[in-house]
Batch of 2 targets.
Target 1
Amino acid sequence: MKHTYTNQGNSLIIILIVLGVIIGGVLYYKGAKSEKDALEASLPSSFADTNTSPVMENASPEIGAEDTMMEAAPLKEFAVEGKNFEFSVKEIRVAKDDFVRVNFTSMDGTHDWRVSGYDVGTAVVDTGKSSSIDFKADTVGTFEFYCSVGSHRQMGMVGKLIVE
Ligand SMILES: [Cu+2]
């Protein structure tokens, strides 16, 4: 008799626990759903309509601005022209860890712009064509930049990249 009573007591506790879990689950689901609805309701002016409504692009310029990588370090940009057989810029000086962009244009002949010791360079371009290269100046030192076409380097198509 006592044994049976104990079992009934245990069953009641189990039923209460199961009910609690079910009720808790329903409440959690509703809560999550309303959070999701609230999130979606706050989005139309930014993410939700970005793909379908180009007009909205200017409405949310602040989105992602804080995450922009370009703000991490300054971008130092240089325009370099090449001809037979010299560069318009003989020396490029930057600070360590600067992001460097070289916009190279051939004014006459087929040339490129490469940095010895950095293993970076533009494409080889013909007269009137341009090519750009981006790199991070992460190694301090003085490096020779040069044109890798034919014997242009030996003929004087060189300069100095100084990272300090
Ligand atoms: Cu050249």
Target 2
Amino acid sequence: MADIRKHSIHRKTGETEIRLALDIDGAGDASVDTGVPFLDHMLNLLAKHGRFDLSVEAKGDIEIDYHHTVEDTGIVLGQAFAAALGEKRGIFRYGSGHFPMDEALVLVAVDLGGRPFVDYRAPDGVPHIGDKFNFSLVEEFLRAFAFNALANLHVEVLRGRDPHHMAEGVFKGLARTLDEASRVDPRIAGSVPSTKEVL
Ligand SMILES: [Mn+2]
């Protein structure tokens, strides 16, 4: 019988309280309320394009700014992703691609091999999205996610003018590459995709 690849987390700190449930083998159904509308938009895209079922309820100190809520949501999603993957039996492990969003183009490559690493590149001076969502929060989210998911993540925003489109390319690319890397390869079902036999 196939592993059930889902996990739920409740995490409370002095800055945020987050309840998150993830099913890697979902259909893209999302229920997201983080108090940060743009983050909700990105997480809905992540679920939809990654075919993950995802529910997130976050209450953070957004009266200060969005930083803690965005970073902590990335941490909890990463922890849930790692836990849901379990021993990673039969997964493809790698995913990559180029993802266009209108004029923006983003490269994303991921290895779920258990060695956390992030290389993030984007043009300097990208303006805020709306009036409050600093574009640098995209990188904060990716770093928090990757280090907790134990993922190697390379993301490069190759070009773009609209920061909303650039962020959307990043999250859609993350969704597609995570789906590709986490999918189970029936040819190696039950085995771990490493010559070390452990990930
Ligand atoms: Mn959009």
